[in-house]
Specification:
Elements: E1 3-7, E2 14-15, E3 21-29, E4 37-44, E5 48-49, E6 56-64, E7 68-70, E8 73-75, E9 82-85, E10 91-94, E11 99-107, E12 112-117, E13 122-123, E14 128-133, E15 137-141, E16 144-148, E17 152-157, E18 163-168, E19 172-178
Antiparallel strand pairs: 1-17, 2-3, 3-4, 4-11, 5-10, 6-9, 6-11, 7-8, 7-10, 12-19, 13-18, 14-17, 14-19, 15-16, 15-18
Length: 181
Amino acid sequence: MSWSIISADEVTPQPWRNGGGQTRELLAWPHSNDWVLRVSVADIEASGPFSKFEGVDRWFAVLQGEGVRLYEYELRVGDELLHFDGALAPDCELIGGTTRDFNLMHRRGRGVMKVQPAAHAVIAQAHWVGLFSAKGGLLEHGARAMPLRPMSLAWCETPAAQSCVFSGEGAAWWMSWSDEA
């Protein structure tokens, strides 16, 4: 029931094969070679198509920069997460230069992933609970308080069914995964 925390600045960026950016993988759970969910922060440096991920649901948000165009959407800092089928591999057009972005991927058919803004408290009742914060803040789970640095992911496997509250500025999302359909 202990929480793990990692910040994007602790992770060495990995360049994309297409040369259009780099990714900092914060978590591939439960195993890096056979993940059910994957959380990363990416720097998009050039317009181009997203990688194709068959059987994967994706959530995407702009954290820094002028924004991007995906499909018919213009996404900018502060917009809601965009949820889409990872197999579609949309073209991504930078609006005004490099962006830093949040990415969550979940393998369809392997449990249920729920994502919601961290503006509201949640009860930790899933097998896996996580929180990503763009600007940092304070995560409280029951009587425990944990400070988060900017661009951080906190997660807990089989957390105690207690209230989780986040206090902070900027974009932040609760993520919960359950193996029940």
